[in-house]
Amino acid sequence: MTGWILITAGAVLCTLVFSGIYFTSMTRRKVSYMLDALEDKETNFRFREEKWPDRKFNRTLNRIRGIFEKEQAEILEQEKYFGKMLDNVQTGIVVISEGERIEYCNKKALSLLGMATFSTVRQLRRTNPSLAEAFTLVAEGHEKKAGCTSEASTMTFSITASSAELRGKRVKIVAFNDISSDIEENETASWARLIRVLTHEIMNTVTPIASLSEALAKKEGSGMPESAVKSGLETIATSSRSLIKFVNSYRSLTHIPTPEKRAFYLRELLDNVLNLTGKELSASGVTCTFREDPEDLLLYADMGQISQIFINMLKNAAQAGASKIDISARLDKAESIVIDISNNGSPISRESQEEIFVPFYTTKPSGTGIGLSLSRQIMRLHNGTIRLTRSDDAVTTFTLIFR
């Protein structure tokens, strides 16, 4: 009897063990299947809840599936919402991942580019290489400009970028706008200002020449003293020389030679500039300091042209009554060289701040008005910028950026 009990107990134990192993194996297979399905974003499955042994477990798995399905539906709704929102903005937006693959492109981007679909930057490179290069090279926090020509029109784009992480990989978000109309308006305004200044300068010079010539013609043979004739002719000659000087200034502004670039240390350039202007600055009681961070900053530029900019800046500061000029240079986050030239001279008036880069605009009696305009032209040829960043009773600062 005891033997039968032991055999029965052993059989029951074996059954329980095998049942446990089978249930565990089935459980693992179900969990593995569910995880594989969810990883593939597949929710079209459901475990049966009719059988008693695994009813509770299957119900739990189905509940997890339902939660995931709900979250996925909410994410899709959010994506649709943000997609519609981005399709209604007036800025082209393109998301570029590794391999120049386009992860997202809004309707405005397609409209500006004149494309039905946009899946890779290589598409753009075949039709507009310069714009494709701008999309690829534009760095975060910087702006690039590039043109886009189609059969219908020619546009100029302002392009900016930022970086982000999308599904575990780094992407670049490129935003661009058509600024053609803004450029045209600015060009029209610039031409209007330029014509106004040219007219003013030429009329100021030509008017006394015409007046004196007419007066001398009327006095011919009337016994006018020789000294008066000589004085009138000298005045005409002086005015003519001023007009020739003005024309030469215009010529130098419109015929800037192509920069002959080479690498040199910024400190080397400053030493040369201070050697050239040192006596003039000392005579005006001006001291000049220079600091750079890090040391030994290297510029790749036309040393002669950049020296011309610095000489002009230092002379302007001395003429503004400055006693101290401070030059500082640094690298920004994009590794562009940023140079601040500051002085404590008389500030530039608010009205003049908007005009100082206009050719021939000057507030000095003997100024030509081309120094700052020429400096900006040179910086553009070096893919850089120059701008007035501050001017008040404490300090006036011009900032040069070499990209």
From TrEMBL:
Q: Which residue intervals define the domain Histidine kinase in the entry?
A: 197-403
Gene Ontology molecular function terms on file: ATP binding; protein histidine kinase activity
Broad enzyme group = transferase
UniProt keyword list:
ATP-binding, Kinase, Nucleotide-binding, Transferase, Two-component regulatory system
One Pfam family linked to the record: HATPase_c
Q: Which InterPro entries match?
A: HATPase_C_sf (IPR036890), HATPase_dom (IPR003594), His_kinase_dom (IPR005467), PAS (IPR000014), Sig_transdc_His_kin-like_C (IPR004358)
- Give the range the annotation lists for the signal sequence: none
**Cross-referenced Gene3D superfamilies, in alphabetical order?**
Histidine kinase-like ATPase, C-terminal domain
PROSITE patterns named in the record: HIS_KIN
Single Gene Ontology BP term?
phosphorelay signal transduction system
PANTHER family reported for this sequence: C4-DICARBOXYLATE TRANSPORT SENSOR PROTEIN DCTB, SENSOR HISTIDINE KINASE
Q: What is this protein called?
A: histidine kinase
